[in-house]
Amino acid sequence: MKKSTINNIREFNRLYVNLLGVLNRDALHLNYSLTELRIVYEINSAGSTSAKSITETLSLDEGYTSRIITKLLKDKIVSKKKDITDKRIFILELTQEGLQLVQQIEKRSDDQIITLLSNLNEEEKERFSELTVELKTLLSKKK
Fold it and tell me: Which of 9, 98, 127, 133 has its Cβ near the most Cβ atoms within 10 Å?
């Protein structure tokens, strides 16, 4: 790969990370990091899941995942119960507070994208959306 290609991609990554506030501890102003919010999102998407599944899905360190889940349990965002088929495994589910947080995540995330693209006209917004689909397709290709 050409060095200029690598540089262009890295430059875009830095721009996008900055625009989305990925490095900001509280990017969506919900008192949780993006990683914590992503774990909440994953639990919501699955309906119920295990810490191991989250760790694998998000490619996170087990200890880091455990600390986040402990925080979410303490904050009553998540509840846990033993798996009926394997008592060594805990199943995680969102509480009512967790479901309310998901609604806030969705709203703030939508607002963030609306703000991000506010200086584009409708045609440019549609083109941006098409490009994100294309990028997702390219990045999802199997080796």
Answer: 98
More confident residue, 84 or 49: 49
3-state DSSP call for residue 79? strand
CB contact at 8 A, 33 and 41: no
Question: Phi and psi dihedrals of 34, rounded to 5?
Answer: -65, -35
Q: Average pLDDT in the 47-73 region?
A: 96
Q: Are strands 78-82 and 49-50 parallel, antiparallel or unpaired?
A: unpaired
pTM: 0.82
Say if CB 51 and CB 65 are below 8 A apart: yes
Query: Coil, strand, or helix at residue 76?
Result: coil
For Cα atoms 64, 67, 72, give the angle at the middle one, nearest 5 degrees: 125
**Band of residue 143 on the pLDDT scale cut at 50, 70, 90:** low
Tokens 């119920």 — which residue? 48
